[in-house]
């Protein structure tokens, strides 16, 4: 049996779910260990995956938080019980605060541990777990200490590998197939900053725009809608990315992996490092270095949009260099080496 652990947010959960599906296809039994407070608490009961939910204290870069430390101790106790009742042959952790307790104890018990990092900068949980790990699967190239670099492989970020012909996707979304389509994403919850700053800059361009504002912001931004500027609370990513000619978004690992799979050039507006420790800024630099994206600048945005659309094929080739196609299979192959 393989124990999968990680979550708290979709960025940590969805790659693990994709890997669980791949392992089940190969005939392996899987068990998922997640957090009582994470997104997995809502989604796992909707899947056929056996699972347990435990308390999980959030690791903090800036301060010691007694309540979170207590949750971490409770989580370690819960994870110990799960490992005793469901002893795995190997463990894979996708990180996040939910991915620490079970993986940490597995490492101490000598159970083979494989880590998967979604961002171009290692998260706190992955950093803490790395001394016990047999291997580290990276989504994109990252700067690593020499010792850790020896056991790291760039294998990609598992995504839903579904594409549609662009003209068909535009038509299904109600857009003119002959007109460039800009896709605005602010993460699954939407971004208030992008919601406020981008519409006044994009509307005068005369292009088609599909803007995911986030479920909680739909009514607030309903006034933006026109025939060529549509808003949505949440979008089906494969359909929207198949239709789009250019992405304007934050720089979350999952969004960028999906964009790379769809060869979709991007203008990126990463979160400030004070909010995420610099993970999104590192992601943006990685995709910019590969030639698939640029950092967005509000004061230069109209010119940037025109430039990326004009050189779209070159940026598509850059995105293809970081395509995660086949990532779940590659990670499963490596994990099977420990079974």
UniProtKB/TrEMBL annotation:
Record-listed UDP-N-acetyl-alpha-D-glucosamine binding positions: 9-11, 119, 160, 188, 280
Membrane topology: Peripheral membrane protein
Reaction(s) this enzyme catalyzes, per UniProt: di-trans,octa-cis-undecaprenyl diphospho-N-acetyl-alpha-D-muramoyl-L-alanyl-D-glutamyl-meso-2,6-diaminopimeloyl-D-alanyl-D-alanine + UDP-N-acetyl-alpha-D-glucosamine = di-trans,octa-cis-undecaprenyl diphospho-[N-acetyl-alpha-D-glucosaminyl-(1->4)]-N-acetyl-alpha-D-muramoyl-L-alanyl-D-glutamyl-meso-2,6-diaminopimeloyl-D-alanyl-D-alanine + UDP + H(+)
Gene3D superfamilies: Glycogen Phosphorylase B
Annotated ranges, domain Glycosyl transferase family 28 C-terminal: 182-310
MF terms (GO), sorted A to Z: undecaprenyldiphospho-muramoylpentapeptide beta-N-acetylglucosaminyltransferase activity
Pathway: Cell wall biogenesis; peptidoglycan biosynthesis
Keyword field: Cell cycle, Cell division, Cell membrane, Cell shape, Cell wall biogenesis/degradation, Glycosyltransferase, Membrane, Peptidoglycan synthesis, Transferase
Domain Glycosyltransferase family 28 N-terminal: 2-135
Glycosyltransferase as UniProt keyword: yes
GO BP field: carbohydrate metabolic process; cell division; cell wall organization; peptidoglycan biosynthetic process; regulation of cell shape
Pfam families: Glyco_tran_28_C, Glyco_transf_28
Enzyme Commission no: 2.4.1.227
Family annotation (SUPFAM superfamilies): UDP-Glycosyltransferase/glycogen phosphorylase (SSF53756)
Protein's cellular compartments: Cell membrane
Principal location: membrane
Principal EC category: transferase
GO cellular component: plasma membrane
InterPro entries: GlcNAc_MurG, Glyco_trans_28_C, GlycoTrans_28_N
Purpose: Cell wall formation. Catalyzes the transfer of a GlcNAc subunit on undecaprenyl-pyrophosphoryl-MurNAc-pentapeptide (lipid intermediate I) to form undecaprenyl-pyrophosphoryl-MurNAc-(pentapeptide)GlcNAc (lipid intermediate II).
Family: Belongs to the glycosyltransferase 28 family. MurG subfamily.
Protein name: UDP-N-acetylglucosamine--N-acetylmuramyl-(pentapeptide) pyrophosphoryl-undecaprenol N-acetylglucosamine transferase
Species per Swiss-Prot/TrEMBL record: Thermus brockianus
